[in-house]
Hints:
The complex is a heterodimer of chains A (about 500) and B (about 120).
Chain A: H1 3-19, H2 21-24, H3 28-51, E1 58-61, E2 72-75, H4 77-100, H5 107-126, H6 130-148, H7 154-185, H8 190-199, H9 204-221, H10 230-236, H11 239-266, H12 273-289, H13 294-315, H14 318-349, H15 360-363, H16 365-379, H17 385-399, H18 403-428, H19 444-459, H20 466-472, H21 474-481
Antiparallel strand pairs in A: 1-2
Chain B: H1 2-19, H2 23-45, H3 61-67, H4 71-102
Helix pairs in contact in B: 1-2, 2-4
Amino acid sequence: MERYIYLILLPLGGAFIIAALNAAVKSRDTRNITADILANLITLATAGIALTSFGINGSYSVGGWPVPLGINLAADGFSILMLATVNTIAFCATLYSINYMDQYTSKRHYYSLFLLMLTGMNGVLLSGDLFNLFVFIEIASISSYALVGFGTEAEELEASFKYMVMGGIASTFILLAVTILYSSFGVLNMANISQAISVSSQTPLLKFSLFLFIAAFSIKAAIIPFHAWLPDAHPAAPAPVSAMLSGVLIKTLGIYTMIRIIMNIFAADVSILAPLGIISIMIGVLLALGQTDMKRLFAYHSVSQIGYIILGISLGTPLGILGALFHLVNHSIFKSLLFLNSGAVAYRLGTRELNDMGGLNKVMPITGGTSFIASLSIAGMPPFNGFFSKLIIILACVQAGRPGFALWAVAGSILTLSSFMKVQKFAFFGKLAEKHKQIKEAPLMMSISVVILAVLCIATSLLVLPKVKNIVLQPAVDAVLAGAEYAKIIR
Amino acid sequence: MIYTACIALFVVGLYGICCKKNLIKIVLGFIIMDYAVNLFIILIGYRKNGIAPILDKTMDVNKFALNSVDPMPQAIVLTAIVIGLAVTALMVAVCVRIYERYGTFDITKIRKLKG
Lengths: 491, 115
């Protein structure tokens, strides 16, 4: 169980060491290379720890203080699945940053903020204490606000401010809700609160705090009525950060926390989320269709795909949750791949406008090929991973007696396909413009990173095989379905 | 009564964020909202005529538990204040950079992003 503490300690320590490199290393180039190597080693180590942790449940009391006096870390199937996803994507993003971040002036500040964001996310996934959860959410959020505005151009700052205000309101709601729970029960430990709620009556105060939690996490997850910040913030960030934000941050801070609190702590009815899911799917994809900025289009698709996850969760059946969690893993892989590809295109062409591209397959075959795989995955084409998870969600809708929902999900999937056909046609197929003839393939590290993700796009479709599913996905589904049984993990 | 004041403060802050057109006023609205929550946290642990939550050897434990204020909200509020400080500092820094780029604090004029 001690292994999980390193998922928080390694990136946290690394962040401060990299920030302090200034004092130790004089030359600017050596400093950048040291930062590169350190950050990549740390993310490689955390990815290694997370990927070998399947099946190791349990809890760990920080500082040796027993629950409920001290803070504890708790890992069950769901958090382990999320940890594996987050740390794998983080490794690919740092690998990609080695070449990509050369365009920016301050590489080590970037790595420092990036590792802090990773610390926050790992902390959120492991925390077994509500206030600690809030603190880690804030660590991840504050570093992501700074990373969105990292380029300090006009648009980036504007997006960062917008994100900061929305995120700040959400965080205040979370803090208020946590304190309301504390005032009701006098404990902050998630397991103890869960036990206390299961025996207490549903007072208006409890309902109010549940409402605050849902509102706050909907803002963090960018579900449709609260999505306004996402299409600005995600395109404004540097490409590897967009990949992290769209790929894992909204899921960790939004979806994971929402599921944990609604299903494991309050054990409340989740069907209220279904309309939000449907609206997100449809409006997200319709808004995406009209975009010509590549990254903005991808950002709207994040809103739409989050809708699928919420829809699957809201069914509350084992199959629905299986589909939702599977789609969560898949979406983080192909959406980060798409953002990294758009970054590679922007790195070579200097533009994200689809109308200025065309025929890039001829000069950037790796980027073109991997983005083709990712596009087919997100549009739900077999044999890629997106097909299986969407199929499971649609089947779950029918099985739960909601064929109407299934119809909306299929419609959303068709519109997604059409919008990605637009991306492929404008950017990678068609005629190559004369001025783009000299363009070269993206640098080595960027190519390696996107190839890893493209292989994962195909490899994760193996998760539907019963043998693999029972190791990776099933414990997560069981953990979510266990409801208030979650409390038993604390010893 | 004082809880009502706390909620009023929260709503004032939310109003500032939603309705004001100046970036600095939005930041101030955020700070007010943050402080309303901090005040709320402190009020949870408050006890009229309570004693400091330090257990002396001469005190009786049961009597102590009845009279002392709750120390937990105080620990929480310290952390919350520090986090609030970090967010506010970052917000103000971004405001300064936005002023350098756009030459204004008026959000109706800072509109490069749309769609």
